[in-house]
Amino acid sequence: MTGAKNILYGWMATLMLGCCTLFVVSCSSDDPEQEQKPEQGDRLQLVSFTRSGDDFDQASIKNDSRIRMFITSNEEEPKQATFIWNNPSWSKDGKIKENADYYLYGVLSGDDITTNITPSTNYSSGATLTVSNLSPLALEGQDPCVIVGVKGTLDGNLGESVVERGKFYYKGQSKDHNYVHLLLDRLYSAVTFQFGPLDAEYASLRTIKLTKLQLKVNLSSDSKLNMTVPLTAGSSPVGTITTSTQSGSSSSECTITLFEDADGKEFSEIVDGDIQVGCFAPGYASDLSVVSYYDVYDKGATPYKLSSRTAENALGGILTYTDPQTNTQKPTLTRGEKLTLTLTVNPSYLYQLSDPDATTIKISAN
Hints:
This protein is mainly beta. The protein is built from two helices and 25 strands.
């Protein structure tokens, strides 16, 4: 696998939500039995979230990202709540009752997804989430994550406590004491890019400036997909995930932009944080490519731009491998893993200035 450095990306999270009030307007009635009574209970307040294996700033989440949570019980039908991120806090949702036993399942995503839930034998033992309308690509902070642990506190402070994997249970508390911390796992894999140095002789004659970098996947049908995520109580809560493309008749292309600068940046000027991390559904690794847009400048007495160019590099050969036992292609990365790739310049220039350079950008594994 070309000596690639796999970094366990695994991601979990903990969340807190602000307050909103539901007003019910009804027609007046002289019959007291016909009057609507206010719903009893308190709303959940999602506090913070933690991801395994990395430091994550909650403020980097895209505004309007949502957690679709199912508040389930073995005694009644599940209720769905939606928590919306508006930096620096979450909205408040999810009516619960004091001393009632609940099991919380759900997904965080920057996409406008839909979710459904099916219990295992009962909700205390697990459930299967069906997530629809996902994009196969997402920027870090907008990629889908699934709840794999729940911890309640009375005042929003975890202290020395931790949110344990495979613990979905939550007991309803009295009003204004229902603070919930969530542990999240990533559903996608990720790639990040760095840049190799230019050949010294070439660099004395030419300057290359990157203007845009995109991650792209070509699909044979609709660009949205569905995921089925089985969850069980215990230390390994996520089962085998299945992915399918939504029905569609025409081919499509999905892209995300990792970097863009109209003036361009020389490779040596690009620093950590300039290029965003790209996340992708693991089943689409073989269809992935990176597209580089760059300008080439002559370093003469009066520097000038020679041309603007585009280079597309397929990543399937790096992000997949052939299983020797089954002779089938499998992804190099599983969900929650990240691979760092290096962009290098492959110059093939001529000294006759009347002839164009044959400069291209290529990808190698770091």
